[in-house]
Amino acid sequence: MSGPDTSRPVVIAGGSGFIGTSIAEYLHSRGWAVIVLSRHPSRRQLPWRCVSWDARTKGEWCSALDGAVALVNLVGRSVDCIKTPDNQDEILRSRVEATRILGFAVRSADQPPPVCIQMSSAHIYGDPPEIKCTEDSPTGCGFAPWVAKRWEEEFDACYLSSQRPVVLRTSFVLGRDRGAGQGALNRLLRLARWGLGGTIGGGSQGISWIHELDLCRLVERSLLDPGLRGTYIASSPNPIPSREFMSHLRSAVGAPIGLPATAWMVRFGAHLILRTDPELALYGRYVVSERLKEQKFEFRSLGSTRRCGT
After folding, report:
1. What is the pLDDT of residues 101-145, one digit of tens each?
2. Phi-psi region for residue 76, left (φ > 0), alpha (ψ -120 to 50) or beta?
3. Cβ 249 vs Cβ 305: under 8 Å
């Protein structure tokens, strides 16, 4: 692997959220030039360039891709919401339409980025209660797996044969708040601090997770290593049951107790209080990457929630 070509930028589409900010900050600290495409550019002074776009139509933002060293696509409406028909429609369209328009922009560039890194979701495997899923496991049923499959299918149809594609089926990301929140971890931390971070439902549902540092390292490895190509599960090699995860979380925030929540309590509270989908807490999956093991990718943050910035 060679050093970074700092004269050519890495373009991060959807890079103003929690994950995008983490990746942008990491790459910038490593000497990469970074351009972030965002529908809502940050008003903070940032050390990288931010370009406005609507994630649906071509515009002046397309020029950012011409001559870029790579495109990283993170675009997608948050799934941390009640799954109304309107929200489901936007969850799907935000991913598929953004990927499609990025494909149009890439194909119109005189010098398209040679590497395309596409975010996907480990939820593509559904919610098997005990089975550990790998890249070769069958995909699951339901809304979330279907969205992930459509997302990946759109990407497959968009990238050029001259480009090296990398798809990262990412699990629950743990990380610090760098001004863009901490994703779904925000809610869990709040519940733990309120003394509500006990066993959720049966407690055996799988929590597959990855620390932001390892995700950022994996993105950089994908930029540099021509041996990385195709689909990878971006998740720590040690998924744990939900009850164990919540125990670590309580310890991280110094909560002496954590009241349990039965399934009916979660369904009630998620809808009326948290305004989110109760299935995000009641179901889960155990995923591990065989392909990253073959590539000898070393996970450095394996201490569960203890390094999540709590």
Report:
1. 999 999 999 999 999 999 999 999 999 988 999 999 999 999 999
2. left
3. yes
